[in-house]
Design brief:
elongated; 14 strands; about 400 residues
Length: about 400
């Protein structure tokens, strides 16, 4: 399994200039411009080899001579990113790539929130004995090692985010590390009142990180609105707004990592409902849905289950987990969202969310026992089916004989 390990970088002022995000951006944009001009003029598609040749020629010209001051690997990786973007675009329009449609590559801007360059093994980057990251034509950069690397990295991507922070993202090939087997299994019902309700009755509070930071975000955004466009104060205010947002994003990611790790460690099998997050994000609850970060949490459960030898599966979104009695399996005719507790004719009184989690656990066990491949061993649902992770409406079914055709006297 390939995983990314990200660490904070602290380059000095000279190294920040030497990182040369702009050089990689120029090479990417030059290649994109050449291909667009060739298409507009009716010329053949500019091949990858031709782009590399033109890059070598451009480095010898007066207009692009400064490209020779950075590592050649960085420039070649910029062209590799352009080629990958075109391959994804062509595969999308021809139907070979499933999921949401991919648009054509766009020009990169120096105002983009994320800037990145990549070094492969050919660049001969290294971690020194003193714990610094040595990059070609940049030097030794200070790294804060929050944890050791499990193996030799195949590449490192240097990233600058909107808040002005620098990170080193190492691509590492890791093997499976199965945890000791346990007997417990759990069904997880995700929600907004509680972030997660477990089938054993436990309820995990929703941290509502974006809501809690609203006052600080509003203050930073107002300060940004009072600055003049193009001024130095506006640039500083933009960074302050970005820093306020990354605090929320970092806290949300930390919460998801800790909770997913705990569930994977304590349970042999984890079952969740296949929610249509994109669909829910178009409702009046959109802000709360985005604040919860369900997709990020489920993705963490999926890859951690695969790595540590756990079973992970998604229950179909049309399965009536809330309306179904977890004891007698009777399905209620209707159950409005405002009803948090309900009584079944069999005499059982259910907490809506706990009952849903128990039904998800039972249905997940049935689907795995029936031979359905766990989601941890499949590609992402959003890539294999559609943008929402599954069918957006129930499949068609054959009508009963009494329902087919027109009835006399019907309006």
């Amino acid at each position: 399994m390939q995983l990314r390990y990200r660490y904070r970088l602290y380059p000095d002022a000279v190294q920040c200039q030497a990182l040369a995000f702009g050089c990689a951006r120029v090479v990417f944009n030059d290649g994109l411009r050449l291909r667009q001009e060739a298409r507009e003029n009716g010329l053949p598609y500019v091949s990858d080899t031709e782009l590399s040749r033109r890059l070598s020629v451009a480095k010898a010209t007066a207009e692009r001579v400064w490209l020779g001051e950075v590592s050649a690997v960085v420039l070649q990786q910029a062209l590799a990113d352009l080629n990958a973007a075109y391959r994804n675009f062509f595969a999308s329009i021809t139907g070979k790539r499933q999921g949401p449609k991919v648009g054509p590559p766009r020009f990169r801007s120096r105002k983009d929130a994320r800037q990145a360059i990549r070094f492969t093994r050919n660049a001969r980057f290294a971690v020194t004995a003193g714990g610094r990251l040595r990059l070609p034509k940049i030097g030794e950069v200070v790294v804060r090692w929050s944890r050791p690397l499990p193996a030799e990295p195949s590449s490192v991507t240097v990233i600058k985010d909107a808040a002005g922070r620098y990170f080193a993202s190492f691509m590492v090939e890791t093997g499976d590390e199965p945890l000791p087997k346990v007997t417990s299994e759990v069904g997880v019902d995700l929600g907004l009142t509680h972030f997660a309700v477990l089938s054993d009755g436990r309820k995990i509070d929703n941290p509502r990180l974006l809501r809690r930071a609203a006052k600080r975000l509003r203050k930073a955004q107002k300060a940004l609105g009072r600055t003049a466009k193009g001024s130095n104060n506006r640039a500083k205010a933009v960074v302050k707004v970005a820093r306020a947002h990354v605090r929320v994003a970092d806290a949300r990611r930390d919460f998801a990592h800790k909770l997913s790790t705990q569930l994977i460690r304590d349970n042999q099998a984890i079952y969740v409902e296949d929610l249509s997050v994109k669909g829910l994000a178009r409702t009046r609850l959109a802000k709360s849905v985005h604040d919860a970060g369900w997709s990020q949490f489920v993705a963490m459960l999926e890859y951690k289950a695969k790595r540590y030898g756990r079973t992970f599966a998604k229950v179909d979104r049309w399965f009536p987990s809330s309306k179904r009695c977890s004891q007698c399996e009777t399905v209620a005719t209707t159950l409005p969202l405002g009803v948090r507790e309900w009584a079944c004719p069999c005499g059982a009184v259910h907490d809506r969310d706990v009952n849903a989690a128990r039904n998800i656990l039972a249905e997940g066990r049935r689907s795995v026992a029936a031979g359905r491949k766990p989601a941890a061993g499949r590609r992402r649902e959003a890539e294999t089916l559609n943008a929402c992770g599954g069918d957006v409406r129930p499949p068609f079914a054959v009508a009963d004989a009494g329902e087919a055709g027109s009835h006399r006297g019907a309006a």
